[in-house]
Specification:
The structure holds 2 protein chains of 2 kinds. Chain A is an alpha/beta fold. Chain A is 38% helix and 26% strand. In chain A, the strands form 4 sheets. A 5-stranded mixed β-barrel of chain A has the order 1-2-3-5-4. In chain A, strands 9-8-10-11-12 form a 5-stranded parallel β-sheet, sandwiched between helices. In chain A, strands 14-13-15-16 form a 4-stranded antiparallel β-sheet, with no helix packed on it. In chain A, a hairpin with a 2-residue loop joins strand 13 and strand 14. The longest helix of chain A is centred in the C-terminal third of the chain and has 51 residues. The N and C termini of chain A lie far apart (157 Å). Chain B is mainly α. The two termini of chain B are 24 Å apart. In chain B, helix 1 packs antiparallel against helix 2. The chains are: A alpha/beta, B mainly alpha. Chains A and B meet through helix 8 of A and helix 1 and helix 2 of B.
């Protein structure tokens, strides 16, 4: 039996592969796993896999070398998704065989546009599922998602805030600074629920924090989910179906400030979105300022009405005084009228005056004593 | 005045007082009392906005 050395065989394989594939590059679609990134040496080792009906049908080791490592950075920047296990990509590879290291695919570039398309499609599917499975609590009107949560009326004053954020993050600091140092000196009671806001399990961890807030004995006015500047790469947790559904049904108004300008995550759409932590905090300050303004307007209105009522009362009193003065006997006498009395009793009915009665006619300055000689009725009414 | 009144309740009561005044439902001899009530309600709302109530409570607990 003729024997050859293993190295000879593998050299032969290497030559065959090289002659077949040298200089050629192929675009392949695969799911990535075992991703090991070494940013310092700018290398990334990973495995490309393919599945059919849940069964693995192909697998190959792959590597990004220093000259193509920037493809990963571009991918993360553009898709706002971390290059990590489980995601699907389309990438261009070259085949390389080494008798010690075996078969390897050198990744030359990633089709980022395709990845964006895939992400967008997944996002669209999640949104459609949310609408379909929660028809009474999540609805779409004129491109705006109306959910149970984002339709809850806001309290007049925002006082107690549950803050979900990452510990020692920019988001945490910006939010706390804006609420503490607000120019109107409003007081906010902020309770922090700290967790990781990015990574594989972030959506579950955020959901757990929401559950804690719901179970808390504190009656929070609002919930703020914030994330700061440096951590903009990973969008995925906020596009998770379960988290989005939980947010949409959450009984306390949720505000998001997860630091991105161009895109909206699904959680943003289910809640009230304010882009940045600072903007969320200033909205709370503004809400209280609005209340204080309304309060001041009410105060002015109230005291204005009190003043009006007092002035009206004064005027009425003055009128009454004038009327009383006009109706006084002295005022009547001053105007030339006379009062007739018999035995000091004012006579208002002429029937009480008999012929020969002794009358006193009181004028302004004098009283005339007289005896009635004769009484006749006036033929016409005397309108004086 | 109940100490546990919330700002929403205080604000609603203040609105109610204004409405009563507008409708002429408050007699002259009740005005002083209503002004006192309104002032108390405004103080409640203001205190809640700036947390003065809590500060006073904490201060009195520390005595």
């Amino acid at each position: 039996m003729e024997q050859i050395k293993l190295s000879e065989l593998l050299d032969h394989i290497q030559d065959t592969i090289q002659s077949q594939f040298e200089g050629e590059a192929f675009w392949v679609e695969a799911q990535i796993t075992n991703v090991k990134k070494y940013a310092s040496t700018r290398r990334c080792y990973l495995t490309l896999e393919e599945y059919e009906n849940g069964t693995k049908t192909a697998e190959a080791k792959a590597v990004f070398w220093a000259n193509t490592y920037n493809q990963i950075e571009i991918f993360e920047k553009v898709t706002k998704q971390i290059f990590k296990d489980g995601i699907k990509i389309i990438c261009q590879v070259k085949v390389r065989y080494h008798k010690v290291y075996g078969l390897n695919l050198d990744v030359m570039q990633i089709d980022v546009a395709h990845s964006i398309g895939t992400l967008e499609l997944e996002k669209q599917q999640t949104l459609e599922r949310l609408l379909k499975e929660n028809p009474t609590t999540i609805q779409l009107f004129d491109g705006i998602y109306r959910t149970f949560n984002n339709r809850i009326a806001l309290p007049l004053v925002i006082n107690k805030i549950a803050l979900i954020t990452a510990p020692n993050s920019d988001g945490q600091r910006d939010f706390q600074q804006e609420t503490k140092l607000n120019k109107h000196q409003y007081t906010f009671f902020v309770t922090e629920f700290l967790t990781t806001i990015q990574g594989d399990n972030a959506h579950k961890l955020i959901l757990e924090q929401l559950q804690l807030i719901e179970q808390s004995e504190e009656h929070f006015d609002v919930v703020a989910i914030v994330r700061g500047g440096g951590s903009q790469t990973d969008f995925k947790p906020f596009d998770d179906y379960e988290l989005a559904k939980y947010v949409a049904h959450f009984p306390i108004p949720i505000f998001t400030g997860i630091g991105h300008d161009r895109n909206q995550s699904i959680v943003d759409l289910m809640a009230r979105e304010q882009k940045t932590p600072t903007k969320v905090a200033s909205l709370f300050v503004e809400r209280n300022f609005e209340f204080e303004n309304k309060l001041m307007a009410l105060k002015t209105n109230f005291f204005g009405l009190i003043q009006d009522q007092l002035e009206n009362a004064k005027k009425e009193l003055e009128n009454a005084k004038r009327m009383v003065k006009l109706a006084s006997p002295q005022a009547i006498l001053d105007r030339g009228f006379a009062i007739i009395t018999i035995n000091n009793k004012i006579i208002t009915d002429p029937k009480d005056i008999k012929e020969n009665a002794e009358l006193q006619t009181i004028l302004r300055n004098e009283t005339i004593f007289s005896t009635v000689i004769k009484k006749t009725k006036n033929e016409t009414r005397t309108d004086l | 005045m109940k100490p546990e009144l919330t700002y929403s309740e205080a604000y609603a009561k203040l609105e109610d007082l204004v409405e009563q005044l507008e409708d002429g439902g408050i007699q002259l001899d009740q005005l002083a009392e209503k002004v006192k009530q309104a002032n108390e309600l405004i103080v409640i709302c203001e205190n809640k906005l700036r947390g003065i109530e809590i500060e006073i409570k904490e201060a009195s607990e520390n005595v």
